[in-house]
Amino acid sequence: MTSALGEDERRAFVRRLIDRQPADLGLLQRICLAAVEALAATGSGISVMTSDGTRGVCAASDPLSERVEDFQFVLGEGPCIDAFAARRPVLTPDLSDAGPYRWPFYGPAARGDGVRAVFAFPLQVGAARLGVMDVFRDRAGPLNGAELRTAFTLTEVAVEALLDREQNGVARDGDAGALEVGRRAELFQAQGMVMMQLGVSIGEALARMRAHAYAQNRRLEEVARDVVERRLRLDGSDE
Predict the structure, then answer these.
(1) 137 strand-pairing partners
(2) Contact by Cβ (8 Å): 21, 33
């Protein structure tokens, strides 16, 4: 039982869970899968975020979790965004209670995909904020004390993985790191292009991209890619 484990034992337990995930997956995805197993969850996702507004899903345990994670960036609200801003966990044991007034768009969207509880843990070290790890469950109910301690250990491992990747400039787990850097740059480039097309602020440009993604039921990064590759103009005059 993890409830009886000390800190070192819990860390070893988490490492064993990560190591037994499929070896051909990236480290961050293995951490997500380990979170699902350790916390009796149905899904998990890790998003990289920065204070200047760059956001994106970095890894997820499965496609549905990736979709629910991405909802937050398309809609501009959700526990992930709140946890990052507040620098503390946002624990939502019953999304049907919190969702309607706290996240009027994200709540129904997540519940529509079967999510009933969300637990968001910021990934940070000192003053540096790297992102957030979300844990999803298809049933309402809180994490118990042992599960919370295990979740914090998982976030520590995720922070180490992100820092290690940034310090080396590339990912040690295949191309995931390079891919995420590319996604960030692409999103920034798309924001700049939309800003010029519409004559609006960089924040408004992101809001327009989110609105388009939501209306078309697409991921934000897909919209950004279409803008960058000139397949889409949000002023309505597609090239």
Answers:
(1) 117
(2) yes
Residue-level pLDDT at 39: 96
| pLDDT digits 0-9 by tens, 103-140 | 999 999 999 999 999 999 999 877 778 899 999 999 99
C-alpha distance from residue 233 to each of 141, 176, 207, 225, 230 (Å): 44, 28, 14, 11, 7
Could you tell me which residues come within 8 angstroms of residue 150 by beta carbon, excluding any fewer than 6 positions away? 2, 10, 13, 14, 38, 39
Domain locations in the chain as residue ranges? 2-168, 176-228
Superfamily of domain 2-168: GAF domain (3.30.450.40)
Reduced to 3 states, what is the DSSP secondary structure of residue 32? helix
Q: Tell me, which fold does domain 176-228 have in CATH?
A: Arc Repressor Mutant, subunit A (1.10.10)
